[in-house]
What we know:
Oligomer: single chain
Helix content: 55-70%
Strand order of the largest sheet: 2-3-4-1-5
Shape: globular
Largest sheet: 5 strands, parallel
Number of helices: 32
Strand content: 5-15%
Number of strands: 10
Amino acid sequence: xxxxxxxxxxxxxxxxxxxxxxxxxxxxxxxxxxxxxxxxxxxxxxxxxxxxxxxxxxxxxxxxxxxxxxxxxxxxxxxxxxxxxxxxxxxxxxxxxxxxxxxxxxxxxxxxxxxxxxxxxxxxxxxxxxxxxxxxxxxxxxxxxxxxxxxxxxxxxxxxxxxxxxxxxxxxxxxxxxxxxxxxxxxxxxxxxxxxxxxxxxxxxxxxxxxxxxxxxxxxxxxxxxxxxxxxxxxxxxxxxxxxxxxxxxxxxxxxxxxxxxxxxxxxxxxxxxxxxxxxxxxxxxxxxxxxxxxxxxxxxxxxxxxxxxxxxxxxxxxxxxxxxxxxxxxxxxxxxxxxxxxxxxxxxxxxxxxxxxxxxxxxxxxxxxxxxxxxxxxxxxxxxxxxxxxxxxxxxxxxxxxxxxxxxxxxxxxxxxxxxxxxxxxxxxxxxxxxxxxxxxxxxxxxxxxxxxxxxxxxxxxxxxxxxxxxxxxxxxxxxxxxxxxxxxxxxxxxxxxxxxxxxxxxxxxxxxxxxxxxxxxxxxxxxxxxxxxxxxxxxxxxxxxxxxxxxxxxxxxxxxxxxxxxxxxxxxxxxxxxxxxxxxxxxxxxxxxxxxxxxxxxxxxxxxxxxxxxxxxxxxxxxxxxxxxxxxxxxxxxxxxxxxxxxxxxxxxxxxxxxxxxxxxxxxxxxxxxxxxxxxxxxxxxxxxxxxxxxxxxxxxxxxxxxxx
Length: 711
């Protein structure tokens, strides 16, 4: 390779070859290590199929949840752009001096914003205009880079191949000439080319295609520089009559940030309209309702795992995407660690797979704690058959899985019914969201808790209208279910509704008013007070309930009987381990990182991660073959707040040379000491980088220790 240079020099040419990536199939991880079994590939395929179904369900759900927001935004964009065509109208001429701006309040779940903006960009391109640009603050430190990014993305979003070829030739020219004048000229040229043509795939009207607007999305408006925003808005407003620009501000906090970043002279150039996205808590409730509180997907998680995922969501990031990833990790861990997860599929497929279970898999079923408890309750002859006969075991397993499916159907119906009753009670004793009630029911028998008792007391004080409204909601819940296990329950609730409607309360009110008029014949204050006290005492001692109170008591007792019969904890069901993931500890290790504890474990016990038998040592001993940073770290644990570097270095050299034979050659010994000293300096520097020590001005040859308590 030839080079030309004025002066002599050394030229380095890096090879252009690409390393071949050795890709290991993901299913191979299921067949390695202690979890190797004959059905590892089938378990992975089942996991993959189930996750694809859950993923498609969440994507469809998110589209439905964002549909109202996107529809209102598209309507705003179309309405704003219509003023550009009707520029002869006086009111439209006034509006042409203001940039149409949509302030999109998305919430603090910043990790979900990219997905929303991608979907929004696609929706705008399909319905309003092909010219959509999305910018981030980190790419626009000043107005020059802002305009460069804007021009680059705007010209790239044009779908014409010939235009792309021309743009590739003029890249350098575009970068040097990034201004609103050049953008206006480009826009006029593009609209002239695409004006008479009508794309067939886009759902856009011909009038809009003649001069489509340019939509600029600022994803993180709070992070943009104030000067950049001000300059761009002022420049754009002066070219608005020939360059129809529409702004969309992505806001994570509050719309007040617009007025904090922009002075009145600049914000008055914007015609702002607010749009609020769905609350992330409501989004989470809908995700749980569609993925976990249903029999469509057999996979379930226990109370501790659900608590870990919801705590991360509520106290860390409010991110729906991270919650879904945590749910995917739970699914993966379940299929990896549970050999019987091969039966975690739809009921018909699970029954077929039971017939082909091997001897080892049958033994796994017999070892399940829930199955052992079930066997202990059976007669002695059946116990022997279940423990010795595989055919009887498989038949019983099919029956138990079918019972587990029926249990889940009834469980979720009664859970929703109970939530309808308790979600509107004062102070929400069983929680306002259904996930709170679900967690309480997963943890233990809900009827044993004090909150449940207080909820029943409040239900016994509901008015007739409130009770009838709740009963109608419960009827809708039972009728919406395709399963008919609790068909009699829906009929019973409908009978209660009919009885409430047929109550003759008017007659009772007349009787009550008549008795009240008889007792209140005296008009002076003394006799009035005396009569009221007598009536109150009479009501308290008689304890005669009205027809409504009797019927209300029946309804509450009926709901209580449903709860006690169908809302049993999952641990009471045989074979619940097949579909329930309960390893909250492993999930917490993956999702809740603890770097200080991990560092302490790695430095104090390197064998834990390196798995080198030579690194095994008794507690308190320091092996000389351990990494230098581990030796220095264990020595520094024995020191006080200030560490003498000389003493530390000598102790380090003593440990390192403990097993080495001393050489008689002085030069060799001196060279070895220099090497040991260099190793010590490097270990100390690494500990300082990790934050365990720092230099101190109290003593020049000392360092200060920063951590205590072993981590």
